[in-house]
Specification:
Radius of gyration: 31 Å
Shape: elongated
Strand content: 5-15%
Helix content: 40-55%
Number of helices: 15
């Protein structure tokens, strides 16, 4: 047989992965224990991977073993020609249970963040080069885009939180108010982060092996702080949604007679400390039940109407309430009780005052500048 034919035939056999005949001299791929690896072990590991893997193979190690999420893998692919082989090896090592030294872990994180920022910059520059189009955008699409922008900003706050050792002074409620986030968008933000909150709670309870392994780089107290941070985002977004619904109701036109009744009423429009806004005082007229909260003394009041005509207002005083059945109590834990009043139906509201273990206070029907008008029942 022709020697050239033999050569062609032999070329069909392709060897993938480490060269088996070389492992006899260099050893098998490094394995890891729970102990943090030493500098010498790191050097030996890098030498082993450098020998057996080229740049293309190294990138595959990163993309197949990246320890964060698939979305970021897609971004990293955009800058694959910039990625260091060392980072690829570290991703593979982490996935195989290697506990990197703190300086190596910081190197890995810093490099990854740098690559992700570069990828975003490239995408941004590509978009700038594209010719601008002027399609007709529907209201739904605009809302979706706005939600995406809000979430992108919040993702940045989460990055800052995690990079700052799971600590942050970010005030979600103040952020929502400054952006004037509408009810629908606020609810969408809460829905988006509910899944992350559920995931973190599973990590804390260790009910899912894969999740536990995925978050193994975090200490238990860091997981707890992360849960509290995400829960703040979700709860404040829900409050903003509820508050925006309340504000929207105040825009409805009321008869002139109602406006005259409430012309001199005093009340507190909003209270950032408790994340509350007042309803339109015009809604009180004719209602059967009114809930108020004095922010200075932390007193919750439930006024029940005396008859079917409901309430009226004279000057700054509520008229037509039943002094025997109406009740007011001081709150020790406003954060626990006020959400029940704001979101609860009649059954919940009937039990709220019974759950407050403080003495009843006297009633006078006066509304002042420290009074938040929480809710009415018609």
């Amino acid at each position: 047989m022709d020697k050239s034919a033999l050569a062609v035939k032999r070329k069909k056999k392709v060897r993938s992965g480490p060269k088996s005949f070389d492992t006899k001299y260099l050893g098998d791929e490094p394995t890891w224990t729970d102990a943090e690896v030493t500098s010498l072990e790191m050097i030996k590991a890098y030498n082993w991977y450098n020998y057996f893997y080229n740049q293309k193979d190294a990138l595959k190690l990163l993309f197949d073993n990246y320890p964060r999420n698939k979305k970021e893998v897609a971004q990293l692919r955009k800058v694959s020609d910039k990625i260091s082989s060392t980072v690829c090896y570290q991703a593979h090592m982490i996935a195989n249970g290697c506990k990197l030294p703190s300086e190596s872990q910081e190197f890995f994180n810093d490099k990854i963040e740098g690559y992700l920022k570069l990828a975003k910059k490239i995408v941004s520059e590509i978009k700038k080069q594209e010719k601008p189009k002027a399609p007709v955008v529907s209201i739904q699409e605009r809302i979706r885009e706005q939600i995406s922008e809000y979430i992108a900003e919040l993702e940045n706050e989460i990055d800052i939180f995690t990079e700052n050792k799971y600590k942050s002074e970010f005030d979600m409620y103040a952020w929502l108010r400054s952006k004037e986030v509408k009810s629908q968008q606020a609810n969408a933000i809460a829905d988006h982060y509910e899944s992350l909150l559920s995931e973190l709670e599973e990590v804390k309870s260790k009910s899912d092996e894969q999740l536990t392994e995925g978050y193994s780089h975090m200490k238990p107290r860091e997981v707890t702080r992360f849960i509290d941070f995400v829960r703040m985002i979700v709860e404040d977004a829900r409050k903003q949604s509820q508050n925006q619904k309340t504000v929207r109701k105040t825009r409805a036109k009321k008869p002139a007679s109602l406006q005259k009744q409430i012309a001199r009423i005093q009340y507190q429009k909003d209270a950032s400390e408790f994340k509350l806004v007042s309803i339109n005082p015009a809604d009180i007229i004719g209602a059967n039940q009114l809930w108020t909260f004095n922010t200075k003394y932390r007193v919750l009041t439930r006024y029940d109407a005396l008859g079917p005509a409901g309430f009226s207002i004279k000057g700054t005083t509520l008229q037509g309430y039943d002094e025997e059945n109406s009740i007011r109590k001081k709150l020790r834990k406003p954060d626990q009780i006020l959400p029940l009043v704001l979101t609860g139906g009649k059954r919940v509201l009937n039990k709220v005052m019974d759950e407050i273990n403080t003495k009843e206070a006297s009633m006078n029907g006066r509304l002042n500048k420290e009074t938040i008008l929480l809710k009415v029942i018609k």
